[in-house]
Design goal:
The chain has four helices and nine strands; from the N terminus they run αααβββαββββββ. The protein is an alpha+beta fold. The longest helix has 27 residues.
């Protein structure tokens, strides 16, 4: 008995539906495999860097909005970031000591924070948005930065002293 394809004289190929099913399966496998192959640490490092940027931007905006200084503290031992000097922040922190973000708990990763050019690992934003040293009150240096490291991947964040704007410089 001959197969249908042999009887009709045509060879049978894949249908469009079969091709689409294969493409969908390969896409799903790729979304799972790419983070495993490239390392999830680089994604976490970038996400933590963006979270720190958000905290710095929030502190700066609150200082401008309220017309009062707002200080951000970097706890290098526990990899936490906190707003430690505030008055009337929106939303108002409910805990004594302010608003704290525990980076290792939030991102389920071993995070190492380091700072350069920040006295006591703090930066204060003034009502004009500028970033100053929390001890001396002088503008922070152009080298002021925060580095977060997850595994072998690091993200460098720099703060412009005049504008107070922070940006990820290098990952």
């Amino acid at each position: 008995m001959k197969h249908f394809a042999e009887q009709s004289g045509r060879t049978r190929g894949f249908t469009l539906v079969e091709m689409l099913i294969v493409i969908v399966i390969l896409s799903i496998l790729a979304t799972v495999a790419v983070p495993l192959l490239t390392g999830a640490d680089s994604f976490k490092s970038r996400a933590i860097g963006e979270r720190i940027l958000d905290i710095l931007a929030h502190a700066r905006l609150e200082a401008v909005k309220l017309g009062k200084p707002v200080t951000v503290q970097f706890d290098l031992v526990n990899a936490k970031v906190a707003l430690v000097q505030f008055a009337g922040l929106d939303p108002l922190p409910t805990e004594p000591g302010g608003y704290t973000v525990d980076l290792p708990a939030e991102y389920q990763a071993k995070v190492v924070l380091t700072t350069t050019g920040l006295s006591n690992n703090r930066v204060t934003f003034r009502s004009d948005g500028s970033a100053v040293d929390s001890v001396s009150g002088a503008l922070i240096g152009m080298d002021a930065s925060i580095v977060n490291t997850v595994g072998e991947h690091s993200t460098l964040i720099q703060i412009n002293p005049i504008t107070g704007l922070a940006a990820i410089i290098k990952q």
